[in-house]
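Chapter review: from sequence to fold.
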Amino acid sequence: MATAGDQGCATPGCTNAITKPLACPKCMQHGLRNVFCGQACFKANYAQHKQIHAILAQMGGGGGHRKTPPGGIVCPVDAPRELKESLPGWATGYTFSGDLRPAMMSPKREVTNPKVKKPDYADDADGVAHSEQRDKRTNNNIRVYGPDELEGECNLRYACAMGREVLDEGGKALRVGVTTDEIDRVVHEACMERDCYPSPLNYYNFPKSVCTSVNEVICHGIPDFREVQDGDIVNIDVTTYSRGGYHGDLNETFCVGNVDADGRRVVQTAFECLQSALAMVKPGTLYRDLGSTIHRVAAANKCSVVRTYCGHGIGSLFHTAPNVPHYHKNKAKGVMREGHVFTVEPMINLGGYDDLTWGDNWTAVTRDGKRSAQFEHTVLVTKDGCEILTARENEPVMRWDLDLVQR
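The token string follows.
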């Protein structure tokens, strides 16, 4: 599951470099990080900027935050098909960038296994990850994981292995005519069977146990009752949280039925972008340098790289340092060291890199409506390279095979 990437100054037209970002405290209360290049810029623009606060208050829905999905989106599993496939309330009159349309979704699934350890946000009314918030306030370092955290029962390596098994189960269920809600059910039950919590569930009020991103959806698509169509490309993004208190995060994009040449091209390009980036992972590599390699691969295949969302540190926290942008000329900080654990998850578009967020407050789509694809792994920096903790069975180094993603 991606996290938001680097930002420029929030003052319209400002091109100053941000060396010591100043975050608007009011926006932070709403879960939004708007940064300015300095105090002078913040003061000069505040009269205009504070209009955002009123909008955020309205979006919050009486105490919620900007990520809380709106009402009118849920119906019973046994509801008539016509109701299940109807537009949710927010989508009526909404201007969509592409052809995809949302449907209603089922109620949030319950954690039925008493052995499952829950992260701190699981039962929080607003889904706030308080441990992550504390980490952002107090920690600027990239955590180094040692043998005690990597090895043993329900450790970090185990969490990643369980994530791989769960994604494989979700991928097996994908076919023409299945709903992404059904994929969510399969993933949720696979997590319960493995004593794992599905990390996306209630994370800042995300309502489902997996992200399913179809066609022009870049990331964070919410599973619903829409049936997958012949020719769709579908990304399944799984994160599992083990009883030992560790997250493992990965995703793959699948080709469903008869996908056209452009669809296959963007899927393979996304795979090769990740493949090329992981080949660079070793002690001493600058995190910012991954973006240049990803950009070259994408550009060579006439694709673009999404800038808004990036990879992230992971382990005992779902999202933490470092930020791992996927585009070239980024300003990410940090040098890879043995023991660092993070995700790389480039989102690759057939058209431009600009994105929009649907009115459900989660689903990120391409601004031009063209398709997007993504692959993701959680990796560990080793003494002389990296270990893909979420690798496919018998595939320690990524290898492209269309048959493995064809459904």
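Two observations follow directly from the output. The mean pLDDT is 91. The chain is about 25% helix and 15% strand.
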